[in-house]
Write a structure and sequence with these properties.
Layout (H helix, E strand, L loop, with lengths): L2 E13 L8 E8 L5 H11 L3 E6 L5 E6 L4 E2 L3 H13 L8 E4 L5 E7 L2 E7 L4 E2 L5 H7 L5 E4 L3 E4 L3 H6 L4 H11 L3 E6 L7 E7 L4 E4 L6 H12 L3 E6 L5 E8 L2 E6 L1 E17 L1
Helix pairs in contact: 3-5
Amino acid sequence: MTDTVLQLTAYHIDAFTDRVFRGNPASVVLLDEWLDDTTLQAVAAEHNLAETAFVVAGEPAHALRWFTPTCEVELCGHATLATAYALLHCCNGFSAPLRFQTRQAGELGVSENDGMLWLDFPSRPAERLPQAPVEVEQAMGASSLEWYAGANHLAVYESAATVAALAPDMRALAACNRQDNRGVIATAPADDGIHDFVSRYFAPAHGIDEDPVTGSAHCTLAPYWAARLGKTQLAGRQISRRGGTVICRLEGDRVHLGGQAVRYAESQLFIPIEGRKT
């Protein structure tokens, strides 16, 4: 009598990039049925990437959840992009457009056009605060021009150089994150003549000191920059060490996020299932 070992296929996908070692890496684990949350969290911790996506294929929509190394998250852009790429380009039997049913973000869509994957996500505008939260701004290490709050904090800075130079006190920022369950999006106008804005994203309390490229943050960035620049199609560049580009199209209460992805690795997972014997 031995414990049952469940064998699963997983893909390591770099999202919002067309080259490996760039963009934001995500694991995508294919399931026939849901495992318990403790096992899902353990797998995500073992992979130790910003997010691990778990998908159960089905009709009319595939069930999708996302976990950081420490917690489940309500919405994740790059891991959704990675999941769509894995299903469409690494597996058989799937075709675009895809629909995903999530637990907290409702139904999400992914279409494909000329090699670009497009996420259909909810717009998440933030509200301007009369002043920045003192402890959070101090933890960021630079004075902002404007401060907004929504699903995350949105700190607006004077220049791309200011955003690039940010070196937050991660311990202090994590303490702030734990108080209100918000990460911090830092943004400023782009100065490269190609993109409309730049950004970085910090969420140390969620197991992610700095996320390389954050699709969900652009659900807040897109409505902010659309209003500020008077345009509904924008190009954002997340200027983390790995870096990545997110194309944004604002359509009412939805944001369409465009990006590419590439497969880095494919692997087999061997997970003991306690309490079940062979």
